[in-house]
User: Fold Tripartite tricarboxylate transporter substrate binding protein from Bacillus mesophilus.
Amino acid sequence: MEQGGIYVKKLLSVLFISLLVFSLAACGGTNQETAGEAETSSKYPEKPITIVAPSGAGGGWDLTARAIAKVVGETKLVDQNITVENKPGGGGAVFLAEYATQDTKNPYKLFVSSPPILINHSKKEGNSPFGYQDTTPLAQLTKDYGAIVVNADSPFTDLNSLLEAIKNDPTKITAAGGSSPGSMDHLVAILPSFKFGVDPKQVKYVSYDGGGEAIAALLGGNADFIATDASAVGEYVKAGKVRVLAVSSTERLSGDLADVPTFKEAGVDADFTIWRGLFGPKEMSEAELAFWQGKLDELSTNETWLQELQANGWESEYKNAADFKVFLEKQDEVITELLTALDMQK
Assistant:
């Protein structure tokens, strides 16, 4: 009986040791798998990257996306090739609907955006069910301003004369912009009229896919004035093709638009800042987010990038991923208040 008891104790000991060894092996395997996953994530990026401009060529998104790709390529900040793809439609809403449903885990497709990502989600007409919450904000990179632009031979020589004409008969004046009704260009176009005492809903607005098409419409006589990015009109000003009546900045700009008054100088108590930033898919891994955080931090102070900003007439305004997200939350409130004032909120 005693020998049987000893045998049972030995058997239990063997079983215990076997279980212990198995458990340790399993833990080791888990650690190895985790290490393997981390190693895989750390290899990002392993193939070319696309930056999407959700508009046609020539507008602020397109120029910003191409500037990022150009500088990152020239400075070898990222080893992989970066290409730019234009996907116009709905002031960015068409692309975002596709991106937020089909590319949620694709870290090889990033995109540039600005206030329309907030406006499209908050406006009443043509509302987008998707917003910045369906992405991973990576960084704010620049800020720009809106501009009210007329053809060089336009009878309107200043903002006040244009606003008086709109007030006298809104049906005779056509505004245009490179984004859909209720979006950024539209808000910039009607903001002076609204502050001038005109019902913004009476102002005729025609939308085009991108600032380049809007400028073409102006030059072709299909619009009396356009609202577009201040940085996008410099070359047309130098060529003598257009006249900028006012810009939405709080202070006068430099360069080609140095002589252009601000809205406030022109008698309109308003201003509007057009920030631009880079976004990634909603389900980016921590390693992928950390990669871009580091690279964009470097880009923001890179001399080649700062020269590119100056060449395009942009101002540097850098916010990292965390600060950018907080900023977007506050901007969302501001946009909603503006749309509410215009009776255009959802």
